[in-house]
């Protein structure tokens, strides 16, 4: 007779491997494990379109469902929370042979995912401005900023992801020849926001935790409008003072 | 003894497509139940739930903790649940008698626990761990099952009763799940109800099911059937007045249609628990 742990292991084996017959189950009900295989798969497949609306719009519902089915088949779920499940979809698309004629799709998926994560990101309080008021300018430049977890910078080397997103939100047709674009994603009181950014290296450095001064030195254009937006929407959450 | 901080009235499962309508209309509903995982994290979802919580009692119903998994409990999931409980201050917190993870791999479904040697100590330890972290009682829901294990040593009600005795948890009795199990596995729903100790049940669920390829699937996608109404009455007669939730997940009707089903449940509970209040 199997123990509890042995029966679970046998059940899990049969969920993962359709050739495995779960001996832990009664003869009369053994075949019905298919219901669980289907439920676990369909729950994941059904949840993915909501996280990837732009990808789904680009390829159509049937194509997206086929893509999601392959993703779910080859990618174990790493969370009980279905809202976490698409973390690997962009990487999967990049290696998905049938999507080779849509080479921009993986980068659009990264943008969709960043917006999905921004929607569910934890609430984190904004930095108290008093913390900065006490610093001199050099102290600020030497320190590091921690940004809100909803903030993400999505960069595509080759594809106009901002234009593609705009097209699916009612804008003009995107021209693929426009080349690579970057999109800043964040969350304000009004919900998830995004904007195209052309000068991004300084912001990528800031997000990566480089000192403020070192990051700003990379800017080719005035970074103040973006910084002002980040402060205004409460997205600067902490300042690490590195003054010796 | 299970505390029932909710009044013994009908409640309604709240799903995200209805939230805007509920906030705008503030319908007459005694309490709402939501799936905990849908409110993990911050932003718009939890802000909406806080707005609802300001006007209604809320029950948090988890689908992802996987209490029966042999893998250790997912600490991050448990901490996210704790943050949600601390923020929403729900009337009730519940989870399922199920597992969902093996060797780090998740199965996004409610998998039945084998009632075999080792079930009781593992489940009791996990429930105690969750109750310690949350600092409050957890209600454990009986699940619908499509499979039976060989050589099971007890019924689900016997296992639940022992978990109640060992951990002080309560029971969320889903009478639709009991009925689905009678159809799929030939179990005895009334015997399960009658085995559970009086006082251990803190909430009841009713829902509808659908039949696919000869298997009855607990989809929460159809109205409540006559047999489930009868089991609800049997449970209310045994355990006394309790909060009763109408669950609907699939084939979700517009809010107005769901509210009509809700009022039917509320009237049914009134007829069952206060027969003298109904003229003729």
TrEMBL record, chain A:
InterPro entries hit by this protein: DUF2063, DUF2063_N_sf
Name under which the protein is recorded: Putative DNA-binding domain-containing protein
Task: List residues of the Putative DNA-binding domain.
Answer: 9-93
Q: Which Gene3D superfamilies does the entry link to?
A: DUF2063
Q: Lineage of the source organism?
A: Bacteria, Pseudomonadati, Pseudomonadota, Betaproteobacteria, Neisseriales
What Pfam families has UniProt attached to this entry?
A: DUF2063
UniProtKB/TrEMBL annotation, chain B:
Q: Name one Pfam family in it.
A: MbnB_TglH_ChrH
Q: Which domain of life is it from?
A: Bacteria
Alphabetized SUPFAM superfamilies for the sequence: Xylose isomerase-like
Q: Which residues cross the membrane?
A: none
Name of the protein described by the UniProt record = Uncharacterized protein
* Organism of derivation: Andreprevotia lacus DSM 23236
């Amino acid at each position: 007779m199997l123990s509890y742990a042995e029966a679970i292991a046998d059940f899990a084996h049969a969920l993962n491997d359709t050739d495995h017959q779960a001996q832990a189950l009664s003869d009369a009900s053994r075949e019905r494990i298919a219901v669980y295989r289907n439920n676990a798969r369909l729950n994941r497949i059904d949840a993915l379109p909501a996280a990837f609306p732009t990808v789904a719009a680009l390829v159509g519902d049937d194509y997206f469902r086929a893509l999601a089915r392959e993703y779910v088949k080859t990618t174990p779920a790493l969370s009980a929370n279905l809202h976490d499940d698409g973390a690997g979809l962009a990487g999967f698309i990049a290696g998905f042979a049938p999507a080779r004629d849509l080479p921009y799709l993986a980068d659009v998926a990264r943008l969709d995912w960043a917006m999905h994560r921004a929607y569910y990101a934890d609430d984190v309080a904004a930095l108290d401005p008093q913390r900065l008021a006490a610093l001199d300018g050099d102290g600020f430049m030497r320190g590091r900023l921690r940004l809100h977890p909803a903030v993400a910078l999505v960069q595509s080397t080759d594809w106009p992801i901002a234009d593609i997103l705009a097209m699916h939100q009612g804008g003009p047709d995107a021209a693929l020849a426009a080349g690579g674009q970057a999109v800043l994603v964040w969350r304000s009181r009004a919900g998830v926001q995004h904007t195209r950014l052309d000068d991004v290296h300084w912001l990528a450095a800031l997000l990566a935790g480089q000192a403020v001064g070192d990051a700003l030195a990379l800017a080719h254009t005035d970074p103040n409008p973006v910084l002002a937006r980040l402060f205004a929407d409460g997205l600067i959450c902490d300042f690490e003072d590195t003054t010796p | 003894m299970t505390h029932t901080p909710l009044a013994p009235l009908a409640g309604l499962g709240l799903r995200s497509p209805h939230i805007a309508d509920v906030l705008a209309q503030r319908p007459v509903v005694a309490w709402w139940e939501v799936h905990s995982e849908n409110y993990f994290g911050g932003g718009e979802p939890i802000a909406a739930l806080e707005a609802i919580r300001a006007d209604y009692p809320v029950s948090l119903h988890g689908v992802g903790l996987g209490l029966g998994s042999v893998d250790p409990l997912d600490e991050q999931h448990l901490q996210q649940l704790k943050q949600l409980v601390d923020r929403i201050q729900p009337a009730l917190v519940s989870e399922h008698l199920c597992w969902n993870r093996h060797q780090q791999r998740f199965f996004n479904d409610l998998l039945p626990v084998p009632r075999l040697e080792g079930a009781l100590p593992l489940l009791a330890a996990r429930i105690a761990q969750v109750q310690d972290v949350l600092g409050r009682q957890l209600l454990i829901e009986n699940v619908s099952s499509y499979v039976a294990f060989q050589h099971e040593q007890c019924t689900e009600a016997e296992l639940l009763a022992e978990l109640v005795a060992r951990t002080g948890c309560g029971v969320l009795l889903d009478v639709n799940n009991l009925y689905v199990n009678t159809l799929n596995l030939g179990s005895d729903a009334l015997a399960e109800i009658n085995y559970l100790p009086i006082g251990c049940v803190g909430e009841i669920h009713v829902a509808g099911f659908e039949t696919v390829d000869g298997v009855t699937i607990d989809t929460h996608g159809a109205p409540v059937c006559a047999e489930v109404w009868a089991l609800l009455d049997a449970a209310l007669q045994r355990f006394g007045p309790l909060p009763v939730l109408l669950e609907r997940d699939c084939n979700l009707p517009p809010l107005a249609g769901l509210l009509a089903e809700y009022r039917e449940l509320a009237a049914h509970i009134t007829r069952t628990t206060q027969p003298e209040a109904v003229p003729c």
